[in-house]
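Is S-adenosylmethionine placement plausible here? Inputs below.
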Amino acid sequence: MVSTEQARRKYDAIADRYEDMFFYVVDVGQQLVDYADPVSGTRMLDVGAGRGAVARAGLARGCIVTAVDASPRMVELMGLDFPEITVKQMDVGRLDFADDSFDLVTAGFVVQVLDDPAAAIAEIRRVLAPAGVLALSLEKQSVGRLQWLHELNVEFFSPTPDDTTVDQEVGPMTDQDVGTLLAQAGFVDLTQKSVEMPLSMSDPLALWDWLISQGLKEALQSMSDKRIAEFRKRFFIEAERMHAHGGIVLDFGATLHRAHAPM
Ligand SMILES: C[S@@+](CC[C@H](N)C(=O)[O-])C[C@H]1O[C@@H](n2cnc3c(N)ncnc32)[C@H](O)[C@@H]1O
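Reply from A.M.:
I modeled the complex. Tokens:
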């Protein structure tokens, strides 16, 4: 979880290549809007909109779309890519909109990065019209057959105890946490749906190259040559093992949550 200021810096730094790094967000954005099923003319607000993965799917269904994000660079790029969308830099915890302004609020992979998700959900409820819909997605955190990579990451890249930018006390948000937050904010008719997005890699080198493109390159820059060589050696031993036993597949998945504001 990150503060709004940290989010601004973190997401500004990756805004230009965000949808290349997180290849599945456009597909999930589409599925999230399909799950909400808005009619043409729906007043839709997409919060934490990033490069517009969810917002563009709303636009395609004829919604009147407003999108907000804390990151100025995300906002700038979204505005250039989608001139039909009203784009604003804004904190989801302090939405600058009147009560009952929207029929649908979407949040793709956002609640789990917020430092105060309850405040954001209360704000979303406030700006939703009676019986309005909230649709959000949550990344699944299961590591499955990639447990070895997770352990390698922890061993080589764990934050030091004095790294105050990482919350080491709180685990990742679960679907149950989301359900509790929504119910506490007064939402009703809660439903959810799982989506799977497996990504197959042809061989260990393809997995290495993909991880390099996802930030491994930058992470390795802070390590000595000896430690990089050790990491690389251990990585390829484990990746070869996985390749030989069932192939290398990254089991990405998400849960779509949908709820209604009360009448
Ligand atoms: C994981 S990205 C998801 C982007 C997009 N919804 C998608 O599905 O691709 C999270 C986004 O939330 C934004 N964000 C983080 N904290 C925020 C806050 N407090 N208010 C508004 N946006 C925030 C980030 O800048 C980032 O663009």
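Short version: The first helix runs from residue 4 to 14.
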